Structures are given as C-alpha cells and as structure tokens.
C-alpha cells in the first residue's frame, strides 16, 4: 500500500481511465455512451480513434473498424457523452476496440488521429471564415441593390410628377389666349363704366394749412436716452452658477472634429461608391437593417462606417446593440465603452446619447453574470434619466440578484 501511494504521488497528473462505458450497434451504426457529469469535454474523433477528456477522467477507444467521421456525431448532456458512429461497412462488429498490446502501435494511431483532427479543425475554421466573408459580401450587395431599387422608385416618381407638370403647363398655355382676352374685355368694361359715372363734390373742401397751423400741428420732440443690451455667446442653457463652459466647449470641438474626420486608408476601398464612403449613409443603412431584424447586416454597415470614421459615438453604440442581439457580449462591452469614451466630457448636450451605451454595457455585464459592474452602469443611467420606470425596475432586479448571491 505504501509503495502504491508513493507511485501515485510521483505521477499526480495521470488521467483516470474511464472503463464503465457502454456501447450498442446495428449493421450501420455504433452508439457509445460514456458517463460524464462535466459540460466541458475535449473531444477528438477520427475514422479510427475516439477520445473524450474531462479532467481528471479520460476515455479513449481504438475502433475495431474504420467509420465515416464526417457522418458521425458527438453530443454532451444528461450526464454522458454519446457518440453516434456511422460504419463504412454494413456488418456487426465483434467488439468496439481492437485488441492490441503494442504501445507503439497505439501511440502511432493516437498521433495520426490527433494530426487528422487538427487538420479537420483548421479546415472547418477556414470554411467558417470564408462563409463569414461571403455573408458580408452578400449583405453589402443586398444593401446596394435595395438602395438602387429605392433610387429607381424615387426617380420614377419624379419622372411621373415632371410629366404631369408638363402636361398641366401645356394645357394652361393652350387656354392662356382665351383667358387673357376675356380678362382684358372685363378690364376695359370696368374702365368705361367708371369714366361715364358722374363725380360727386366733396362735402368739405380741403384747404391747405397756414404756416402757423403747420407749426402747431408738429409733435414735440422726445427727450434723448440710451438703451443698453447684453448678449451671451453660450450655446448651452445651463445657469451661470452651474456652468461647465470648458467641458461644453470641448464637447462642441470634439463634435466638429468627428464630423470632419476620415480614415486615411479610405482610398483603399476603391470598390465603394461615393454614398458608400459616407458614414452617415452607412449608419442609416445599418439602422434600417436593425429595424427589420437583420442584425448581421446592420453590424457590417456599422463596422464599415467605423472604418471610415472612428470618431462618431453613435456608430459604436449601435454596433454594441447588434452584438447584444447576436450574443457577442464581450464585443458589446467593448463597443459601448468606446462610445462612452467618445462621449466625454459628460455634459447636458450628450446626456441622451450617453444613456444608450451605458444601458447596453450594463446589460452585457449582467448577461456575463458580472452583476456588480452591471449595477454601476444602470445606476449611472438612472442619474441621467431618474424618472425612467423601466430603468428603475431593472436596477432593482439587479440589486435583488446581488443580495441573493
């Protein structure tokens, strides 16, 4: 017993082999069930090898015959890891694993399986990246097509209005001679009637004023005086005793710089039109995609706008909302923090703009179970909008969660 304890102490990191697995089969499939209470399992599977590692336990199987790994699956749940393997040859196996005592053979199979699995993972990663790029291109093309359709619709409407106006103008020009002649005859008849009507004498002839009367009727001159005006150049309605003019002027300066800023690398985006180089146009595209539930399309539009101009806070704030919808919680926190960084200094003019990224970052923190950080953001949002009942209820819910933990 003492020697066994010493051996265990010398190799404390050796995994515990799992032998209490069960397996069943048909002519076409093999089902292997490995007991496992953990949700974090490192799984490796190839045509001839299986491994499930959930420290300190390890399940390893060198399969009796080759299977089709591309059609096989592995699921974790209900206290077990369940492998469903598709046989290449339709027949019953004598046993699940090969009977070999050669450690060299097992090592060779294991290394070959790990290498094949690594190659498969790399290939899947490349395919996933290519699919994401394809989705981005498709989204951008769809946005461009929608914009083109909208432009064509507006142009058709303008053409129809132009044709209608031209038709009305032409009809008016055709009626104009007759209308002018009728108007001239009416005017001549009116003049003739006035000329024939006798003039009545005035009931009281008007006499010119004498020089003395002219002097008397002149109003007296008003006494001279001065009127003083004071003006203020301030752009914010804050009372003077509460003024933060330095911060307010800095915020106005940052807004002006943001509108004039552009990425120097924008010249590299030669495949974009003039409108697609406009961050405001891209933001509007992203807003429309977000409203219809196309969160990935909105994310791509905001990202391109940020690449063009990275000093507009609304772009980061709106992209944070997209990340929240797509459950990219860490990215949501980063974008909301970047928006708040651009919205400094905190003044009354940007209070509404600061409210949105503050709540979005607090929500992302809570979804990450970081309730203390989330509570700080919600309390900061309440300071901006203290009468918001939804904010009050959410803040109280977070406090309740922290009290129960």
Automatic annotation (TrEMBL):
Regions annotated as coiled coil: 143-175
Entry's localization field: Cell projection, Neuron projection; Dynein axonemal particle; Nucleus
Family matches, as Pfam families: CS
Residue intervals of the CS domain: 16-97
Region of interest: Disordered: 198-217
Highest rank taxon of the organism: Eukaryota
Any single GO BP term: inner dynein arm assembly
GO cellular component, one term: extracellular region
GO molecular function terms noted in the UniProt entry: nuclear estrogen receptor binding
Keyword Nucleus: yes
Chief localization: other
Keywords, comma-separated and alphabetical: Cell projection, Coiled coil, Cytoplasm, Neurogenesis, Nucleus, Repeat, TPR repeat
Gene3D superfamilies the UniProt entry points to: 2.60.40.790, Tetratricopeptide repeat domain
UniProt name for this protein: Dynein axonemal assembly factor 4
Species for this entry: Oryzias javanicus (Javanese ricefish)
Biological classification of the source: Eukaryota, Metazoa, Chordata, Craniata, Vertebrata
């Amino acid at each position: 017993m003492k020697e066994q304890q010493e051996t265990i102490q010398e190799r404390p990191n050796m995994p515990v082999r799992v032998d209490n697995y069960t397996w069943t089969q048909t002519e076409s499939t093999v089902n292997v069930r490995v007991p496992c209470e953990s949700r974090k399992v490192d799984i490796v599977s190839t045509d001839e090898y299986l491994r499930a590692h959930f420290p300190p336990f390890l399940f390893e199987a060198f399969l009796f015959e080759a299977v089709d790994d591309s059609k096989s699956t592995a699921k974790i749940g209900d206290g077990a890891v369940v492998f469903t393997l598709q046989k290449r040859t339709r027949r019953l196996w004598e046993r699940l694993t090969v009977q070999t005592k050669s450690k060299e053979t097992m090592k060779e199979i294991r290394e070959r399986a790990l290498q094949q699995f690594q190659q498969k993972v790399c290939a899947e990663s490349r395919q996933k990246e290519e699919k994401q790029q394809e989705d981005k291109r498709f989204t951008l093309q769809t946005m461009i097509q929608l914009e083109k359709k909208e432009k064509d619709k507006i142009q058709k409407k303008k053409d129809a209005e132009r044709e209608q106006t031209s038709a009305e103008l032409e009809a008016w020009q055709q009626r104009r001679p007759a209308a002018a002649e009728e108007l001239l005859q009416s005017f001549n008849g009116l003049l003739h009637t006035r000329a024939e009507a006798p003039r009545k004498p005035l009931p009281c002839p008007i006499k010119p004023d004498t020089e003395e009367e002219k002097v008397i009727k002149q109003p007296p001159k008003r006494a001279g005086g001065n009127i003083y005006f004071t003006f203020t150049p301030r752009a914010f309605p804050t009372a003077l005793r509460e003024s933060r003019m330095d911060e307010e002027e800095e915020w106005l300066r940052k807004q002006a710089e943001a509108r004039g800023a552009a990425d120097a690398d924008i010249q590299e985006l030669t495949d974009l039109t003039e409108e697609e180089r406009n961050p405001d146009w891209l933001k509007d595209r992203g807003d429309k995609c977000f409203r219809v539930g196309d969160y990935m399309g909105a994310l791509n539009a905001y990202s391109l706008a940020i690449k063009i101009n990275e000093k507009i806070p609304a772009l980061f704030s709106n992209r944070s909302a997209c990340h929240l919808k797509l459950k990219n919680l860490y990215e949501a926190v980063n974008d909301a923090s970047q928006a708040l960084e651009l919205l400094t200094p905190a003044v009354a003019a940007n209070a509404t703009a600061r409210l949105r990224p503050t709540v979005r970052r607090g929500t992302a923190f809570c979804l990450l179970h970081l309730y203390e950080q989330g509570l700080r953001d919600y309390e900061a949002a309440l300071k901006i909008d203290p009468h918001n009942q939804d904010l009050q209820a959410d803040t109280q819910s977070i406090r309740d969660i922290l009290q129960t933990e």
